[in-house]
């Protein structure tokens, strides 16, 4: 499974305006690739002799996560479930049960806008393991793919003996890429805690989570990128205060087909890529997994419905819409508490 190819958040170990000041204490920065995107871990107060061991431990954790969630790897736990054409419950890991349970909850709260069963539609439009279509999918093709989707066809079963995932639609195809980055980011945070590291900023793709302070003894700060593929400009800065953050955008992962820009964000209701004016949705939540699920649902809904849902659910949300050549931003009251003005 491929995730968002380019992070939509700019992480920083200090205020962006002060990063070049010298001398300053040095942070340890580790980086690598996973799930079709990049990961980055910034640590404060960690001895340099631990670099190699931490790099190895992080990569091993992320490789294990990819081995659970990937739709690109035929032997992954998710791929095996997707190939299964029966209705009997299939054994899964506790971690996979957690991510699917969270996805089903957010899916219900968004009225199905965040739908992890849209895999057939994702593949039809060329954003899964299959190639990009040579022409726009037909109405019949879209209808056929939609008939193989629906959160109501998926169920997590948890007992004292373990966890299972069940589908009552044999052709149901689950795509967890909408929450994979958040899932992996939370795992990196737990890994840091197990290693006795209390000051860290971890990210996988567009999902970020922080704890403690940076190398200068200041809060970790994250910059939300201006939603354009032509420049790396900062739209807003936030102090995460130990929370997770994730951004979903329609402006980076796309291709051109029949003279139109085709976004990777698919609306489960229409079966088509979104075409509304909302171009970026950022969510801050207790976990990166939660933030990663909500941002996708809000992107699908569009500005007006996303604003109403954010207010109803008391979510920390920052939305950016494009009106002509202008970017119009909106934030919920909960998000304002994280915003930095310096």
List keywords for this structure.
alpha+beta; T-fold; 2 domains; eight-stranded antiparallel sheet; 9 helices; disordered N terminus
The helix fraction, in percent, is 25-40%
Using the 3D structure, state the CATH architecture of the largest domain: Roll
The Rg value, from CA coordinates, equals 20 Å
Taking the alpha carbons of the first and last residues, their distance comes to 38 Å
Unreliably modeled segments:
1-8, 10-24
Helices and strands, in order, run as EEEHHEHHHEEHEEEEEEEEEEHHEEHE
Number of domains: 2
The CATH topology annotation of the largest domain reads as T-fold
Largest sheet entry:
8 strands, antiparallel
Helical stretch count? 9
Structure description:
By secondary structure, this protein is an alpha+beta fold. It folds into 2 domains: 9-69 and 179-340, T-fold (Roll); 77-177, ApbE-like superfamily (T-fold), CATH 1.10.3980.10. It has helices at residues 51-69, 77-83, 94-109, 119-124, 139-146, 177-194, 288-301, 303-313, 333-336; strands spanning 9-12, 28-34, 37-43, 90-92, 154-159, 162-167, 200-204, 207-211, 221-225, 234-239, 244-249, 254-257, 260-263, 266-267, 272-273, 278-285, 316-323, 326-331, 339-340.
